[in-house]
Amino acid sequence: MSLTVLSDTVIRSLLFSLTLQDVINLQEKLSEALHEYSTGTQETTGCCSTNQPQRISIPAANNQTTLFMPASTSTSRGIKIATLATASEPTRHDSLQSLDSTHSTASTRNSQSTASSSLSTSTSTPPATPASQLSKLSLPPSHSTAASSQSTSPIGSLTLLASTGAPYAFLAASELTAFRTALAATIIFRRRTHVHTVVVFGAGLQALWHIRLALLLRGADIHHIHIVNRSFERARQLMTEIYTSDSWAHLRKANEKLDFSILSAGYGEYHRILKERVRKADIIFCCTPSTAPLFPAEHLTSTEGRKKGRYLSAVGSYRQQMIELHPDILRQAVAPEHKHHHHKHAQKGGVVVVDSLSACMKEAGEVKQAGLTAEQLVEIGELVMVKKASMMEIAAGGEGEVGLKKWLMGGNVVYKSVGLGLMDICVGEDVVTLAKERGYGKTVEGF
């Protein structure tokens, strides 16, 4: 039997070549696997939760954690082994909402890439090219923290086995993990009515793939992408890639109204601008291994903050002591609606959407610290097919699940993910198939 070997470089090249239809196909297959995980039985599918062992976490050297994530589908078995940095305990500098030092922010416009004079620390005349513009942006004082100095991308591998137990693929884990996480997080995003303004916390691989998939899936509808990150330099590197790499050119050119901005932890008006960014956001992607809330709960839980429907996705924290969203945001999401109130509020679903109920009850810091019960969580696999069925019914002239549709498309939806080995196996299978079809990677015969 042959063994397909795919490095991170090869996987990135393959994933960057994906078309919109490719991504939709991968996302639909992942949705089906998550649906089977939530609703299937051992007699009906290999993806059911009974066939997915709990992952094991052990401490590693240099304040790191190694995760062992076995999983199975109807056609494959496999295990991902990944080591990643453990976020340090929160300190005054670690909490973005408590920073009061100087701050730096930059704003660039799509093809012109002009700097915003009100938000940029650079006062020079805007250069003609994105590359030169980015190179002249002033940098803030550096803050040495785990989140900004260490890579938060997992380092490891995914091994895929046929149903016979024979290994048929060996994949590097960094790009694949970031891609499959963003692929799951954009399942609901893809169907949102309003995606005009997107805020992304973080500037690593997770942030990159959330931005790329958002632009692939809904690029024509997105006008603003605001990157919020403690390290200005890392955010600048990400924006440089987006604005100068040929692999991003078609996404840059697809919407002339698209602009980007960077907000980093050193700008004097950080709190005001952060509040403005969060309040105006239609979509918030949290992609950091934070141990403190990324912004105050009041930005969204106040009367003003609740007027707008938003999709919030938190995928960066994966342990009980890690947290990106303030617990009050989750508590409000599950709180019963008052029948009589004097203010207009966006619709709530009464639940928090999760990738895995059992895993999030055990490992998700937001869920644990908010004191949520299993009854206040719903797995995304339970929702995706219900929504698909209701949309088909509506298209046929029926009413469908009108309330569910309205909430998922325009209400306040919170999605929390700690990651599933099933996601790795499901997406890994498809990546290997595409690699073979399109000539990527290396093959070891007779392995």
Plain-language structure description:
By secondary structure, the chain is an alpha/beta fold. It is 37% helix and 19% strand. Helix 2 packs across helix 14, helix 5 crosses helix 6 and helix 5 (174-189) packs across helix 16 (421-438). The longest helix has 20 residues, at 20-39. It is globular and about 65 Å long. Residues 90-149 have low confidence and may be disordered.
In short:
The chain has 447 residues and is an alpha/beta fold. It has 16 helices and 16 strands. The protein has a nine-stranded mixed β-sheet, sandwiched between helices. It has a seven-stranded mixed β-sheet with strand order 2-3-4-6-7-1-16.
The count of strands amounts to 16
Query: Rough shape?
Result: globular
The largest sheet is: 9 strands, mixed
Number of helices, where a helix is a run of at least 4 consecutive DSSP H or I residues: 16
Radius of gyration: 21 Å
Oligomer: single chain
How would you classify the helix and strand content by structural class? Answer: alpha/beta
The low-confidence parts are: 90-149
If you average the pLDDT, what whole number results? 83
Strand order in the largest sheet: 5-10-9-8-11-12-15-13-14
% residues in beta strands: 15-25%
State the separation between the terminal residues, measured CA to CA.
6 Å
The proportion of residues forming helix, as a percent range, comes to 25-40%
